[in-house]
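Reading group handout, session on sequence-to-structure problems. Before we discuss, look at one worked example. The prompt was deliberately terse, the way you'd type it at a terminal:

> structure Ubiquitin carboxyl-terminal hydrolase

The input record follows.
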Amino acid sequence: MEINPMELLRSNLSRVRIPEPTNRIYKQECCLSFDSPRSEGGLFVDMNTFLAFGKDHVVWNYEKTGNPVYLHIKQMKKLVSEDRPLKKPTLLAIGIDGGFDNNEPEYEETHNIVILPSYVTLPFPSVELPEKVRLAVDAILMAEGAERKEQVAAWTADKKQISAYAMELLQIGNVVVPPSGWKCAKCDKTENLWLNLTDGMILCGRKNWDGTGGNNHAVEHYKETGYPLAVKLGTITSDLEAADVFSYPEDDSVIDPHLAEHLAYFGIDFSSLQKTEMTTAERELDQNTNFDWNRIQESGQDVEPIFGPGYTGLVNLGNSCYMAATMQVVFSTQSFCRRYYMNQSLKMAFETAPADPTVDLNMQLTKLAHGLLSGKYSLPASEKDGTAAPPVKDTKEGTATPPVKDAKQEGIPPRMFKSVIAASHPEFSTMRQQDALEFFLHFIDQVERSNAAKPELDPSRSFKFGVEERILCSSGKVAYNKRLDYILSLNIPLHEATNKQEMEAFNKIKAEKMSEGKDVSSDEIVRPRVPLEACLANFAAPEEIRDFYSSALKAKTTALKTAGLTSFPDYLVLHMRKFVMEAGWVPKKLDVYIDVPDIIDISHMRSKGLQPGEELLPEAAPEGEAESSQPIADEAIVAQLASMGFNQLHCQKAAINTSNAGVEEAMNWLLSHMDDPDIDAPISHGAKGAEASVDQSAVDTLVSFGFQEEIARMALKASGGDIEKATDWIFNNPNASAASAMDTNTSSNSTPTPVDAGLPDGGGRYRLFGIVSHIGTSTQCGHYVAHILKDGRWVIFNDVKVAASINPPKDMGYLYFFERISG
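And the output record:
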């Protein structure tokens, strides 16, 4: 007997909910895949949980939850005129008015009520539907999707704020500024000139990293006088909002609502002025045409687009290129490919996921892996109508046909993954640009935590290795400190450049041009070339430690520190320290090339441990001594870091862990270890002192919770005696044991120690397979691109653009990924 569809719906009304304002409603993307309303089968929204599923996965949800009623959303592309013009961007933005025009097509949306398991369908809207269903569907369609709330599909530079100094700006003198013919009052510069809005002084702007730009006279004038606002001459037109006003005390471009009055004071009729200079934001946009942008992104190259399994692009969610570039390289490794793709199906991950799979890292990593590696979403489409484009080279079949230059793919938007991975990190949850290194370390930490119950499945271990530091005291005795790490961070010794003669000639030409008031063109610039071997040698080279407290001499002395690796990981990540601190503690990017060979051998960097005849320093200071064999933090370094806003304890740890080598080294350590679980743990100066600091009653309390006494003591030491923090520490360190710690001061030999026991290890020969390059002046701005060696050739992954690389920028990398060569 055939069941009436309406009666079937009425019999399941108890499984239909009307969403409340606090409910998260998913309607743009499947929770388990990257299917959307625009996919062939559309999207099914569970009308009880408001989770969305693609046509291949909705039945899994029905089997798991028993929820039978779904709102089916399908979008079909509208026909649009082919000659629709593209708008010229005026903002550093994507997907918003004034930003880059995505030329997004328009879609027509249809809705139906579908009842599983037989997929009985009823049209919507319909007055025949029960009121509860109509109200529920209306609420779902009117609500802003959770995907959009969590990840806005547009990015823009920070909106300019009204300056606090503009409202009551003091203006002095009787200077009359001419409408043209400007020149710096202190040099011969005629470009990049700024008018101080207090006294009318016309001075040149800041000097760029390559010597171009101004001579810093405008900012120096502010430092001398304190006059806060300046406007860039050449950006003033009848459209005053477009003028570039800079506030020195606020250190940002700002809005001056009284700019017309402030200009009139100096006799400037803004309505008659023509635009002759780029604003700061426009100069950032112009970076798209400079050498670094063009070379790293391979702009202008007739690159061949690639499609198929493992060649899926990632949509830029708004300054998310740091994540896209990193994840493309990570999922090119066998360890992550096996864990989340080969050995785990989407259904398997969904069955073990909690009620809301959007908040489960394992589920979202599996979703991302299948999206990137299956090839399902890596299909060519015509730029204009979205229909299948003519054939291009298919990596799966290996058959080559003439490439279609205009062929492109839409890519997949990793919104849910970003939401999950950023949940525990306030910075990554924002729409601001981030450091790819910090993201990689945070990501690896989260993966390790999520696999804590089954460490044998943990793919992050393939990046993990042990580092051993040997400290030779002037007494002749030694100490060994061990730690675990995922990246090898390398300083760049510029004095080891191989093109010193070319550099000297270039610097001479640059000095001559600057004396004539001319700038050096980008094609004339010569950058130092430093071999990677020199960076690796610098890491292993002996380093002096001043004010090292020797437990043998019972006094401070100078010691020598050398470092080596106790194990060689499956995948070695090298971080090039291109960002250094210049005068005034301003981060500066080194403009340098690193000559990186395809094959490296780091066998000589293996630590040898305690050698015959070596005598260890006493492990702890005598009673009454507050100091240990660990170096004491240099107060000057700590003070300088603290003045930049860092936590005092974190600054002390950074100084100690870099052996007081300097502010730059401490800063790099700090940025790489901000997410360490023990970053807030107090510094311990010797075993006896640490043991005495533990309150026995606190130990007893933790033991009463069911924890072992030695684990309780370790947790209390790491959390400063705070029981609540100690409990969190235990849960965050499930593999902790009384015999293990991240850093130890013990002897070492050829047998594995608890610090590096169980880590992957092998030979020291590695092959380069991945590069993450950065374009821009700092890690907080610019763009990241990945180049990956796949199937014997280099491929560029630039957000959704995936193409064969013609000239991979091997000498311009920020992060280099190497795979160990077996045998």
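Points for discussion. First: Residues 500-515 form the longest helix (16 residues). Second: The chain has 23 helices and 29 strands.
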